[in-house]
């Protein structure tokens, strides 16, 4: 078992940007009128609703097929401003939401999409100070969502490159200080969990049923396990293991999100939707 050092910097700043703000604050900040600063992430949206994530730097340039936008045209402006290239290509500039960041951040492993991240927070009932065992951490999308709710996470991850990526993504979006509540250990969750009296175990790995017997010892009575799996065959095996290990209050949920097109009299569901991503299985440990 090896802990990942938050200062080790395995991933260069060029890949994910130099960090949240010049003052090393979290990207998401509740001060509505604060103008954009050097070092911040900004989300640019063009007239075709294409989205670009950019880290602002002094003298920097954002280059796209629609033209070159100097960062100086954004720095000092209010969030929600419209900014233009010299060839009059316009963009709206916003601070990225967690959802925006998850969809465009650098990835190692496949992330859990925002449509499932929200429900996982509710199913696992994640809240401030909760002790969570998460495995594997992948690109850190789920970690970010739980950390933002105030959880304290111990992550078990097999791959050092994914662990480093997750840590970089998490601290880029939430700020360096969040590393106090986020520890990643390079280890195989199938071989056991050392932690005890955990409030939650949250899983996104290929064979969650192998973790269930260990989760039983890691969780406190009444603790919640949530597992995300793309295949229903993974779910049935996990559910069998949960019953055998003394879990109760089992449920399995699939989240289908359908957006609507609303424009004058043209009111209909959008033609496309992300139908299947994964199943969310939840259970509580009996005393
Ligand atoms: C799909 S990714 C997790 C993505 C993550 N939930 C996110 O939202 O970014 C699955 C991760 O589980 C890790 N993994 C697979 N088997 C594991 C095991 N036995 N113990 C620890 N991690 C494991 C993989 O290396 C991979 O990083």
Number of helices: 7
Principal-axis shape equals globular
Say how many strands there are.
16
Q: At CATH's second level, what is the architecture of the largest domain?
A: 3-Layer(aba) Sandwich
Which percent band covers the strand fraction?
25-35%
- Percentage of helical residues? 10-25%
Bound molecules: S-adenosylmethionine
> What is the H level of CATH, i.e. the homologous superfamily of the largest domain?
Vaccinia Virus protein VP39
Q: Biggest sheet, in brief?
A: 8 strands, mixed
CATH topology of the largest domain: Rossmann fold
Can you identify the CATH class of the largest domain? Alpha Beta
How many structural domains?
A: 2
What strand order characterises the main sheet? 1-10-9-8-11-12-16-13
The Rg value, from CA coordinates, equals 21 Å
**Which class do the helix and strand fractions yield?**
alpha/beta
Our measurement of the CA-to-CA distance between the termini, rounded to an integer number of angstroms, reads 30 Å
Please, what is the average pLDDT? 90
How would you sum up this structure, described in words?
The protein is globular. Helices cover 22% and strands 30% of the residues. It folds into 2 domains: 29-96, Vcp-like ATPase, Chain A, domain 2; 104-285, Rossmann fold (3-Layer(aba) Sandwich). It contains 7 helices and 16 strands. It has helices spanning 13-16, 98-104, 114-123, 141-148, 160-174, 212-218, 232-244; strands at 2-3, 41-46, 51-55, 61-64, 67-70, 82-84, 90-94, 131-135, 152-157, 182-186, 198-203, 219-229, 247-254, 260-263, 266-269, 279-285. It has 287 residues and is of the alpha/beta class. The model is unreliable at 5-25 (pLDDT under 50). A hairpin with a 5-residue loop joins strand 6 (82-84) and strand 7 (90-94). It binds S-adenosylmethionine. S-adenosylmethionine binds next to helix 4 and strand 9.
């Amino acid at each position: 078992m090896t802990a990942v050092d938050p200062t080790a910097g395995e991933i260069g700043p060029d890949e994910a940007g130099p960090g949240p703000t010049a003052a090393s604050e979290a990207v998401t900040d509740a001060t509505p009128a604060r103008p954009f600063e050097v070092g911040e992430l900004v989300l640019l949206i063009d007239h075709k609703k294409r989205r670009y994530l950019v880290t602002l730097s002094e003298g920097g340039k954002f280059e796209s097929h629609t033209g070159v936008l100097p960062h100086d045209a954004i720095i000092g402006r209010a969030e929600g401003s419209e900014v233009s290239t010299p060839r009059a290509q316009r963009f709206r500039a916003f601070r990225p939401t967690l959802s925006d960041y998850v969809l465009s951040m650098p990835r190692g492993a496949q992330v859990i999409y925002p449509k499932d991240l929200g429900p996982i927070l509710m199913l696992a009932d994640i809240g401030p100070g909760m002790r969570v065992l998460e495995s594997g951490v992948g690109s850190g999308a789920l970690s970010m969502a739980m950390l933002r709710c105030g959880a304290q996470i111990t992550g078990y991850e097999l791959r050092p490159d994914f662990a480093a990526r997750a840590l970089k993504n998490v601290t880029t979006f939430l700020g360096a200080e969040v590393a106090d509540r986020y520890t990643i250990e390079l280890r195989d969750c199938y071989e056991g969990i050392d932690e005890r009296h955990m409030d939650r175990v949250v899983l996104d790995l290929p064979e969650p049923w192998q973790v269930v017997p260990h989760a039983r010892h890691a969780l406190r009575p009444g603790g919640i396990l949530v597992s995300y799996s793309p295949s229903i065959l993974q779910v049935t095996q996990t559910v069998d293991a949960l019953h055998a290990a003394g879990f109760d209050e089992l449920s399995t949920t699939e989240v289908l999100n359908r957006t609507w097109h609303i424009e004058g009299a043209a009111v209909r569901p959008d033609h496309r939707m992300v139908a299947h991503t994964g199943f969310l299985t939840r259970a509580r440990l009996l005393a």
